[in-house]
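WARN no homologs supplied; continuing
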Amino acid sequence: MLRDLSLERSICNHFIAELRNVDVQHDAMRFRRNLERVGEVMAYEISKILDYHTVTVKTPLGKAHPMLMEKQPVIVSVLRAGLTMHQGVLNYFDQAENAFISAFRKPHGHGEEIEVEVEYIACPELDGKELILCDPMLATGTSLLLAYEALLEKGTPSRIHIACAIASAVGIRTIQKHFPEGTTIHCGAIDPELNDMSYIVPGLGDAGDLAYGKKS
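OK structure emitted
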């Protein structure tokens, strides 16, 4: 399932517009908060397709019978830009387990193949659990794919949900080709192309730098 919220009447469009806007991007705190809010929207949308059961809750005046999630997913962030969206998802799935993984894009020139190295992983047991992979910018999809393959050392999840602010058409095709059947993709927007440095166009720039400062 592929969900592009830019095609819908969604408050998420306001957050994405500010994330892209060069006149707003100078405010790092607002940039981080907008990515967090995108994560909150994605968490709400993903919550609709999880498994639920009916429980009984005693109130001061009687009993109610709400539908609650069977279990909360594991939230996974690709460091460092993913931390902002991770917090947004965690705001909604507040009892979720969490995992963090680094996927470092090595420097490359115009037209050169991207090399990505996974250096760090902190993760619970994953067998039979649903995962939400948070990655604000889904460009080629390579780092997210390598992160997922590294996570398989911790067990085989039952289903994968991918949450991103902006994706490229290339990244979407990578996910659809290499991830398991039943994977869902939730995007704030899908952009048509990548430039020679594999940045999304029109995109928004480097999400990690805008959120946390430039790297040396």
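The helical segments are 12-20, 28-47, 82-92, 142-151, 169-178, 207-212.
OK
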